[in-house]
Amino acid sequence: MDTTSRLIMLLEVVEQGSFSKAAELRNIDRSVISKQIGKLEEELGVRLLNRTTRSFSLTAAGAEMVKKAADLRLLLQDTVQLAENYHQEPRGLLRITASSYIGQHYLMPVINDFQKRFPQVSVEIRMDDRVVDMISEGYDLAFRVGEPRDSSLVARKIARNKMLILATQRFIDTYGEPKTMADLADLPAASYSSSHLRFESISYIDENGKPQEQPITPVFRSNDAEALMSKVLSHTAFFTAPAFFFADGVDTDQLVPMLTHVNLPDYSAVYAVYPHRDLPVRTRLFLDAARHYIGEHKPRWELNIPGIDQLYQAINK
Questions:
Q1: What residues does the HTH lysR-type domain cover (predicted)?
Q2: pTM metric for this prediction
């Protein structure tokens, strides 16, 4: 391993906050990381880290080296990207991260078609709800619901994402159809919940044009769209769901939109997120394919939702 590689390894240790996490990221033993950082200190002739059995801190020299390592990694990435852009045929590894639902229902068809067109591109996709650090973990492209908070990333809106309030007819017959948003507080709800997001209320715009929040009473929580749908189809809960949850459309024989006169703002749009504006050929072509498949003007998930343009007087963002 050369000095450049060891500097980037030092950067990863600092970004991950521990030797163990940096080793896990590279799928190597922790002792390898420790040994290579030791060799880096020998090469440079300065101490970079103050270590204890449980933690470490950067020395003044270490802090400067980490800054240089970040610049070096960016330069290397740009160099590789420049070379790739000269290939007539896209090739290499494309690393994607997305939620499980978006990955399974909207990206897998794109990936399958893309690799038929460009067989020299290999694809790795991570599907879960964790928001990864794209730069330190080496991802080329992310598909996320909501604009990222990290201002260093580039975010491109892919499609809008309306909200729906749905239940089965049997549920409505059992519990009564709500006439106002306040009525929802008395009804059992199925609610999306993950490690970083919990739905405990519904946003809406009242008659005076002012934003309001209506609390709901979740009796079932899950981070899985199919599990939430299963609960609703058991006739024991209603749910408020973003339209992208309905990859196969809404079967109005099974699910009934409620309170359709209420003005519901759109849920956070779906974004493509990437580290740099100058994308490698394979990333740019895949992004174009995903945008085409999902549909920017009329999202794919709206095509089979009857009358969605008239529901909830949604405010487009």
A1: 1-59
A2: 0.69
